[in-house]
Amino acid sequence: MTEVAIAYEPAVGRYINIEVEGRNNRVYVEQAGEGTPLLCLHTAGSDGRQYRALLNDEQLLARYRVIAFDLPYHGKSSPPEGWERDDYLLTSERYVATVMAVVAALKLDRPIVMGCSIGGRAVLHLALHHGPSFRAAIGLQSGLHAESIFGAQYEAEGIMNRPEAHGGEMCSMLISGLIGPEAPHKDRWETIWHYMQGGPGVFAGDLHYYFDDGDLRNGMVSYIDTNICPLYLLSGEYDYSASPEAAEEVARNVRGAQYQLMPGLGHFPMSEDPERFLGYLRPVLQEIEAKENRVSP
Question: CA-CA distance, 68 to 117, in Å (whole number)?
Fold first, then answer.
């Protein structure tokens, strides 16, 4: 019998246990490659599969250890024990504590942190409060705040938690218009599929952070020191939630932040059109590496 080689993808998935706010969380982590750690934060209601292309890019993996984890309640991560007694609400404090717990558990030495949407807001909180812990921060679809995409008369939970509607399909419907019109058909629908699979109340709980608790219009971002943690902002043009203007506002408020528009892309650049996105990401990573080399003894 002829032995057939199995064509495994390079990413390896493992579970870690981290403590956040006094509760144990079983968190799923995928990683691939070697070199500088690149820690990736997914969007609201989705999971680390959004970074599948980065975890498979040979050029990237030759220089970077790409790491994508599912937040508690998301993807293959579990909610903490006793979750059934609480409403899930993501807060700034919880999000930052979760990321820092992952950094500690994986023993990451000053990783580059990159996040999209709620992750793009989180990198601002991380750069502000834990700047020395990171080599750089990359915000995708970042903004100081966001207005509800549901309209003033609706709440996210009210739209998706209805007996006559499937919550996952309602969720995917709401985000489908945020994908750029030029996205490849396959990647567009894989991005939507991830949203169809979210747990009940998770998307709405994430949006609590996105619309309310994570609001950074208090001026605190001006204290981000880009000499310690350089900040790069990449924004897809087809996004009415975290618009290019929102990213430009962040850049105006953070001295030294660098902003670039990504024409043709929408709210989920790394997932909806990975090849086009990588064309914008690679020069940013090269610049971060060049800065590191200039300051190294």
Answer: 15
